[in-house]
Specification:
Elements: H1 30-72, H2 75-93, H3 99-119, E1 122-125, E2 138-144, E3 153-158, E4 160-163, E5 166-169, E6 171-176
Parallel strand pairs: 2-6
Antiparallel strand pairs: 1-4, 3-6, 4-5
Amino acid sequence: MNETPNSSATPETAAPAAPDSQTAAPAPTLEEQLAALQAKLTEANDSFLRAKAEAENTRRRADEEVSKARKFAVEAFAESLLPVKDSLEAAIAIQNATNEQLLEGTHATLRQLSAALERNKVMAINPPAGTKFDPHQHQAISVVPAEQDANTVVMVLQRGYLIADRVLRPALVTVAAPK
């Protein structure tokens, strides 16, 4: 067999190439690799603990804010009602008030109360006669025969109230009976 010197050389038997001293660094030892991984683990653990503490602090601050909001939610509303209370106390303090004075004072106090409720987004539900009955805003007290469409409001017995589109109290109404 006539073989050329390079043809029979296999990769296992070929002479290793000389390492290029500029591009290849000596391979890190297992201890160095372990130390590097432990440093990365310590750093990741530290980052995790900081993130966890920050999340807990954020949750705690949010809980405190919600607690304060609940505690002081009525503050603005109560503040707007104080002039109404003052007016009522002033009316009681007058010893010899005439009926006309009392009526005038009552109307003025009612205007104050209405303005305070409006400022705080408390709106009356007072549907006119003929309005379609809405079970979300009206409470039917009775069904009466009437000369109008069935299931419409005939009369409001007591106004209802909304606060920011939420029903505080439905309007008490009588409803037209089907014909």
